[in-house]
Design brief:
This protein is mainly α. 69% of the residues lie in helices and 5% in strands. The chain is built from 22 helices and six strands. It has a six-stranded parallel sheet, sandwiched between helices. Helix 13 packs antiparallel against helix 14, helix 15 packs antiparallel against helix 16 and helix 20 runs parallel beside helix 21. The chain is globular and about 80 Å long. The chain starts with a helix and ends in a 9-residue tail after the last helix. The relative contact order is 0.11. The C terminus is likely disordered.
């Protein structure tokens, strides 16, 4: 009887703590988005408030630590999913030279400072690598708020972030190697590198010969929950494989994301794991905040503030000097230094991994974690003050599609076609022949596999997350070529609700359907006939005009 009562009390406590965490998750995310500081800072501060050293509403972190680790796994999988090789070709050699030298020189500079402050060589290397990274989430939010996403500042910043993202995988291997090294450092690094290469090769071979057929088979079942389960299984399976090989779970997820990025299923998988990733990642940042000892932070506040200020100053100065040395304009160099000086969300991942591998002690992590948080907050706050100054110096900037001569993503300024049946296939070929960039979505895996070099991706266009993953907000035009009236109307209504300024062209079976489709939000319709595809293509040419602003 006592055991049963204790079990019930434990369940009640777990339920109470779950409700508290979810309530704080929602409240702090909404508050920090409203004040334009971003959800990451909200999760971190919210976790600190309810954690053991805060209000003490959550005292046992083990209950949420597993979910937090899964958040890291999904974060790294999504990172790999976004790093397609095509994106590396979007910037010039000078930009990549700046990105690479910034990463190496900054990591080396911070490592030297850390070594001078008393850390060992291995510890200094890890701290240098972790703090050299900049926050993708904060920087993208800032340049969007400043209206410089597609200006030169935004394009160069995105290139630097892309190189930093690519460095996360090797840094995970480095931390694993340094943490497990009982012998010479070179030997440990060689063993860890060999393991990482072997795992990558195994995953690459599996992706080439097994992944596409397997995902195609599952997609043919035509059950969304089964495909979602397969996506989750893929992420966790790859993570488990690298863990068994003595490496981090995050590395396996990162490699799996890289492999999926080159398949036609990437958009649907990105949409399927989106809710898991967002929720679990938020729990990870909340756990980081809960683990912060506010008493320790208060007692060492001067040191933490000095570290945050020093990191901002060192990173900004090094990046500014490197940009000037490579011939970038002085104003751009100063802006880049200020924009990318903060710490990264991946620093929490690397520092946490280093602590679990007993490479860094708790006091060091407790000092560095709030310093990174402060640096991120400082960047977000400074951007609000910088907006009027930039507008006076350079004039108001807008993320216009007309500025896309230097491209910032693989899909932009394109035509999205929903449906790859006979009409959709013929339409896509017409538009490609006219030189228009085209992206096609279809929910039939057989049709996707027979696309014959056309950019056709597996995805349900009636889902908002799939449309976002396909960057419909950056398209000039969307054509709904589905054969049924109900399916077409559902997609049109959704696209119009998500992107009010998007131009929408729809295929309809008859005249009564045309009235309903226009009422649903279509700008133009084409009634089905003998020349439907050609009629849609001709109308598409007339509608294909640049928008004034990027809605993505």
């Amino acid at each position: 009887m006592c055991a049963r009562r204790a079990e019930k009390l434990g369940l009640r406590r777990d339920l109470r703590e779950t409700l508290i965490i979810l309530a704080v998750f929602v409240a702090f995310a909404a508050l920090f988005v409203r004040v334009r500081l971003g959800t990451i800072l909200g999760f971190l501060i919210g976790g600190a408030v309810i954690g053991p050293s805060g209000l003490g509403l959550i005292r046992e972190l083990e209950a949420v630590r597993l979910l937090a680790e899964l958040g890291v796994v999904f974060l790294l999988f999504n990172l790999g999913l976004e790093l397609k090789i095509e994106r590396l070709r979007l910037f010039g050699a000078r930009v990549y030279a700046l990105a690479l030298t910034q990463l190496l020189v900054t990591a080396a500079g911070i490592a030297l400072v850390a070594r001078g402050l008393g850390l060992s060589g291995s510890q200094a290397i890890v701290v240098g690598g972790a703090l050299a990274l900049s926050s993708t989430a904060v920087v993208l939010r800032v340049i969007a708020d400043l209206g410089r996403t597609l200006a030169q500042l935004g394009r160069v910043a995105i290139a630097i972030l892309l190189v930093q993202d690519l460095a996360v995988g090797p840094l995970l291997v480095l931390v694993d190697a340094l943490g497990g090294s009982a012998g010479p450092l070179g030997k440990a690094l060689a063993i860890a590198l060999a393991k990482a290469i072997l795992v990558t090769l195994v995953v690459a071979v599996a992706a080439r010969y097994l992944l596409r057929p397997l995902l195609g088979f599952i997609a043919a079942i035509d059950a969304e929950e089964v495909f979602t389960a397969a996506a989750v299984l893929l992420v966790l399976g790859a993570s488990f494989a690298t863990q068994q090989a003595g490496l981090s779970m995050a590395l396996g997820a990162f490699v799996a994301g890289l492999m999926v990025a080159d398949t036609e299923y990437r958009h649907q998988i990105a949409a399927d794991i989106g809710p898991f990733r967002g929720l679990l990642l938020g729990l990870f940042f909340m756990t980081v905040g809960m683990a912060v000892d506010l008493g320790f932070t208060a007692g060492h506040l001067g040191t933490i503030v000095a570290l945050a200020a020093g990191m901002l100053a060192v990173k900004a100065a090094l990046l500014c000097v490197l940009a000037l040395a490579l011939g970038f304009p002085a104003r751009l160099a100063l802006q880049l230094g200020a924009l990318l000086a903060q710490g990264s969300e991946f620093a929490f991942v690397l520092l946490g991994l280093a602590e679990s591998n007993r490479l860094l002690d708790g006091a060091t992590v407790q000092t560095l974690t709030p310093a990174v948080v402060l640096s991120m907050a400082a960047t977000a706050l400074a951007s609000a003050a910088a907006r009027p100054i930039l507008d006076r110096l350079e004039g108001p900037a807008r993320a216009s599609l007309g500025e896309l001569g230097s491209r910032t993503s693989e899909f932009h300024d394109h035509v999205v076609i929903a449906g790859f049946g006979q009409v959709g296939m013929a339409l896509a070929r017409h538009l490609v022949g006219l030189g228009m960039p085209v992206l096609v979505l279809d929910y039939d895996p057989k049709r996707v596999r027979t696309s014959h070099r056309l950019p056709v991706y597996f995805g349900n266009a009636a889902r908002a997350d799939v449309l976002r993953a396909a960057r419909v907000g950056r398209a000039r035009l969307m054509i709904v070529a589905l054969p049924t009236r109900t399916g077409g109307e559902r997609v049109v209504r959704l696209a119009r609700a998500l992107y009010p300024r998007l131009r929408l062209l729809a295929r309809v079976p008859d005249e009564p359907s045309a009235v309903a489709m226009r009422a649903a939000g279509a700008d133009a319709v084409v009634v089905e006939g003998l020349t439907t595809a050609r009629d849609l293509a001709e109308r598409a040419v007339l509608l294909y005009e640049p928008e004034e602003a990027d809605q993505a």
